[in-house]
Batch of 2 targets.
Target 1
Amino acid sequence: MKLTWYGHSTFLLETESHAVLIDPFLDDNPASPVKAADVAADYILLTHGHFDHVADAAAIAQRTEATVIANFEIGQWLAKQGVSEAKIIGMNTGGAVATKFGRVKMTLAHHSSSLPDGSYGGSPGGYLLEVDGQRIYVSGDTCLFLDMKLIGVGGVDVAVLPIGDLFTMGPADSLEAVKMVGAKRVVPCHFNTWPPIEQDASSWAETVRQQTAAEPLVLEPGGSVEL
Ligand code: NI
Ligand code: MN
């Protein structure tokens, strides 16, 4: 399968049969090389309600008829935006659901989750995906927390973690997160979108190599890696 980064926290995971879009923020994302009208999606996964994670979700869901997976409150908000309720899977922290591309479990995240119109966005989350025999942990926006050790039980092949600091964990805490989940490979995100979250990803990657057992996979916006 292939993982493509569109900048910020937007990723496209492509299996042999499905396109899984995560936290679509494209049209107003200064780092994105693509627009919302141009991406494919069979599924859309949302970690929380902030605009830099859900901005283009409703439009893409309506155009592609993708199934959207989000927390219950974001699911209700999407229905109000015109997304078909039959295409929304609302879940909550700790729950899991079997989909056509794999198993999706919603994990804990420590952050906030108001929606762009100010309405309540439920609890922020992350996802532990089991896809084609690999376990992929997408932490979402979060600080470092000790329960990441529980998320790592059973192994994590790939962790997708924020390193931008200010709104989420920064480079140093993401190193601890890599160790706690025991990730074999780690992809950084939520950095370099705007000046307040600028980071030197190559020096971060060097520290990951020195201090953890993980292989860092630093992508450029639009760049992909085979998983
Ligand atoms: Ni956020
Ligand atoms: Mn964010």
Target 2
Amino acid sequence: MPHRLRDLLAKNQLWAEGVEAARPGFFTGLLQQQAPQYLWIGCADSRVPANEILGLLPGDVFVHRNVANVVVHSDLNALSVMQYAIDQLHVRHIMVVGHYGCGGVTAALRGLRIGLADNWLRHVHDVRNKHRAWLEAIADEDVRLMALCELNVLEQSLNCCETTVVQDAWARGQSVVVHGWVYGLHNGLLQDLEMTARDASEVGPAYERALVALKARWSAETAALA
Ligand code: CO
């Protein structure tokens, strides 16, 4: 085995010993069942690990990650994760989490070709196109990228709310709250974009409010830069 992989296994052993020392019986306790309260839908980026960012241990958060935290209605992978998390695990909160400096969002904004993922990132192109006029009015490209990272969170949160899985849960009165968050690679902090929906009637107004707030924030930022 390559030296570095041996190091990884050694690190793993230390970690497991540390967890067990701090919480005796932790791992055997998890054998019985998992009962996470949260479903995290985030970017595959190595710098955005769900558990570490939230300070949570194994068993606390169910996770789905893909390039640019996209929620597509025909994605059986994401839908299966959501259905299992909601119907079987009864998670209380779903957070759709984007991050600034996202490579996938950057590629979509600049029209860069990076490979097979170009086809996946068409969904982020769609977000860019939907808000094209507003984005193009932002002169600074770094600011435009940050704004698109946030817009992508709003749109993917909206998609999440509109899935049959979430709609069915709400229709039967199950308590599930969808949130849209963005993460700063530069400071390790999560920000709530206030795209929060507790039932079907809240989705449209939550999206509209969050969009207005997002645009107001970035307009102020742009004015400050000018
Ligand atoms: Co990313």
